[in-house]
Amino acid sequence: MGPRYTTALSAADKGRLHLIHQDSRRFDPAAHGLDGTVDLVFVDGGHDTETVTIDTANARRMIGDSGVIVWHDFNSGIHGDVTSFVGELARHELIVCIQHTMLALLLVGRAGRDFLDAGA
Q: What are the beta bridge partners of residue 107?
């Protein structure tokens, strides 16, 4: 459904988006030239631990030194593996949960430092 949400974007913004239809468990960011080139990755694929783990590892490769990884279905009440995975990650990483949503964010590198500085 991705293309449906991009219809109102400018041509310049559309040119910055890459919609890839592929099983994320077999996805190789390098094969698409995406290692370290992405600012934001939205993870909403399979909801089992294996798939969330693989999607997150791929997102980290794509983000590189700074950016944001967003997981959907965090604290959804349905997809417990997503919530458990992100909760465990939060023990060692800066995770921000957006109240009254099912979104959790990992702020990587400079993005995380900028967020913390903004709250100071």
A: 68
